[in-house]
């Protein structure tokens, strides 16, 4: 998985990707879900949550929208755990490198 490259994406690149998604998927709940998933994948969890909230306000509480909303929150949780695990792994590697350098 290319998590590190997606997390490091520039804000301008992210905005361009979001615009491309909107152009390809038009204005649908699936489009909003995809944008929220991208934001989560890039570590922008607050923006993703706002987008999910906006999706609910915009599309209502139909079963399809609620299913997408639940999936978006599950994606946010998974990406958050992955990001935390990656950060801990990097911190452990840095600690080992420092210990090796000190020895």
Number of domains: 1
Structural class: mainly alpha
Q: Main β-sheet: number of strands, strand sense, barrel status?
A: none
The count of DSSP E runs of length 2 or more, i.e. the number of strands, is 0
Radius of gyration: 17 Å
Number of helices: 5
- Tell me, briefly, the overall form: elongated
Would you tell me the overall average pLDDT? 84
**What are the low-pLDDT stretches, counting only 5+ consecutive residues below 50?**
none
Give helix % range: over 70%
Distance between the termini: 34 Å
Strand content: under 5%
Q: Which descriptors apply to this entry?
A:
mainly alpha
What does this structure look like?
The chain contains five helices and no strands. The chain has one domain. The two termini are 34 Å apart. Helix content is 85%, strand content 0%. The longest helix is centred in the C-terminal third of the chain and has 40 residues. By secondary structure, the protein is mostly helical. The mean pLDDT is 84. The radius of gyration is 17 Å and the shape is elongated.
């Amino acid at each position: 998985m290319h998590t590190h490259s997606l997390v490091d994406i520039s804000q301008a690149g992210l905005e361009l990707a979001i615009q491309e998604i909107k152009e390809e998927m038009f204005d649908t709940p699936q489009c909003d879900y995809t944008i929220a998933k991208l934001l989560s994948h890039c570590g922008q969890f607050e923006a993703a949550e706002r987008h999910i909230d906006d999706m609910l306000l915009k599309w209502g509480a139909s079963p399809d929208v609620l299913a997408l909303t639940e999936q978006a929150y599950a994606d946010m949780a998974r990406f958050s755990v992955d990001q935390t695990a990656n950060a801990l792994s990097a911190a452990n590697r840095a600690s080992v490198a420092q210990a090796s350098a000190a020895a």
